[in-house]
Amino acid sequence: ALQDALALDGSEEPALRAAAWSASSMWTANAATVSPAPDTGDGRCHLTPANLITMLHRAQEWRDTKAQLDIAFADSRNFAVHDAVPASFGDEGAANHMRLCEAHGEPGVEVFVYGRTGGRFPARQHEQASRAVARGHGLDPARTLFIEQNPEAIEAGAFHNDVVAVANERVLFTHARAFADPQGSYAALREAFPALEL
Known about the structure:
Elements: H1 2-5, H2 14-21, E1 32-35, E2 45-49, H3 56-59, H4 62-72, E3 79-81, E4 97-101, E5 108-114, H5 127-136, E6 144-148, H6 151-155, E7 165-168, E8 171-174, H7 182-192
Parallel strand pairs: 2-3, 5-6
Antiparallel strand pairs: 1-2, 4-5, 7-8
């Protein structure tokens, strides 16, 4: 555990102690990215725990999350639980992932939203992390989109996409400044999923 590795004895900085004792495994949106069976190449539901490496207090969580997923989804005929993506790429899980579909049991279009580094807040979802998850899940490239989040949204503190954009079946609900290129993003979404309702 982080507190053991840092040998916390009460003399350390308060922020370091808070990071060691802070966890958010109850935040399901940050636990993993899930691709349902209708979207994947092998017809199984794929789950990848988020590595959460951009924040010290979260980076310690993914192994425990994976252990829980391994227990809950142990049937390898129907589920595939992956390791987190390499730590060189920040992955914050489903908080930056959306899915559009006609019905939940039908094939859909998976949308990964990523940020760019350089602002006041770290971009927690890296483009390459999203692409690695999509490859690992065996998603059809024609039904998978990668959209850049608006840096203004990240700067305002909405570093998780689900604060400014959410989807359910055919409906996409977004803030006007959710995406870096709104018109281009909406055009790509409509092309990949013509039944889209904005």
